Amino acid sequence: MENVRKRRGSDPHSTAGVCKENAPKKERQPFHFDLWLCLTLQNWILDFGRPIAMIVLPLEWFPLNKPSVGDYFHMIYNVVTPFLLLKIDSFELLYFYDEHLGHLMWYIPFFIIVLIYFSACFSDSEDQEKMPLSGWLLLGPSSLYYWYLATEGQITGLFLLAFLAMFTVRIFQQRKGLAPDSNSSFLFYSFSVTLLLVFLWVAYLWDDPVLRNKYPGLFYVPEPWSYYTLHIRESH
């Protein structure tokens, strides 16, 4: 009986030993010499070496309408870096950058520039308020593109802030006695129609359970591509 008890008492230890043996061992990551060598050479030659190259080949040697040697170094750096990053298994990080952070880094300056341009398109003349026929013809395609930008790019919140800022600037300028010219009117009407299209898009897909589950954020604005893959492509 004692032998049996000893065997039973030793079972947990033996089981733990078997689990340790069967547990998958983490592979030791090797030193990525080729990656770090390429990045080091790139940084020293194309970044640190750029001002040295500009000393050897001064800016005065290049025509004003042509890039200098420093500009070429910048262009080569921007071309080489993505190919070096292909050696890194960072799909999730790149996906986050492309779908979220990259959109904000691109569209925040874009809307700031649009807002600055919009605020300058006001004058004392009331004759400039009328938008020409060419502007009305471009209003539909422009609004449709901004709708695609706000929905597929998932920047509806940022677009709303830009529109509210544009609306505030318009009221402020009109109180100063300034009237919007044709360019200002075109931008404002384009953003207004875009806002209407986004509202209709959300209302149309408001009761879609699958898209509701996929887009649970503060702004429920499904992507057109998701709607296409879910309702159009699968039906064919």
Automatic annotation (TrEMBL):
<feature type="transmembrane region" description="Helical">
    <location>
        <begin position="186"/>
        <end position="206"/>
    </location>
</feature>
<feature type="transmembrane region" description="Helical">
    <location>
        <begin position="104"/>
        <end position="125"/>
    </location>
</feature>
<dbReference type="Pfam" id="PF15156">
    <property type="entry name" value="CLN6"/>
</dbReference>
<feature type="transmembrane region" description="Helical">
    <location>
        <begin position="145"/>
        <end position="165"/>
    </location>
</feature>
<dbReference type="GO" id="GO:0016020">
    <property type="term" value="C:membrane"/>
</dbReference>
<dbReference type="GO" id="GO:0007040">
    <property type="term" value="P:lysosome organization"/>
</dbReference>
<dbReference type="InterPro" id="IPR029255">
    <property type="entry name" value="CLN6"/>
</dbReference>
<feature type="transmembrane region" description="Helical">
    <location>
        <begin position="35"/>
        <end position="56"/>
    </location>
</feature>
<protein>
    <submittedName>
        <fullName>CLN6 transmembrane ER protein a</fullName>
    </submittedName>
</protein>
<feature type="transmembrane region" description="Helical">
    <location>
        <begin position="76"/>
        <end position="97"/>
    </location>
</feature>
<dbReference type="GO" id="GO:0005783">
    <property type="term" value="C:endoplasmic reticulum"/>
</dbReference>
<keyword id="KW-1133">Transmembrane helix</keyword>
<keyword id="KW-0812">Transmembrane</keyword>
<keyword id="KW-0472">Membrane</keyword>
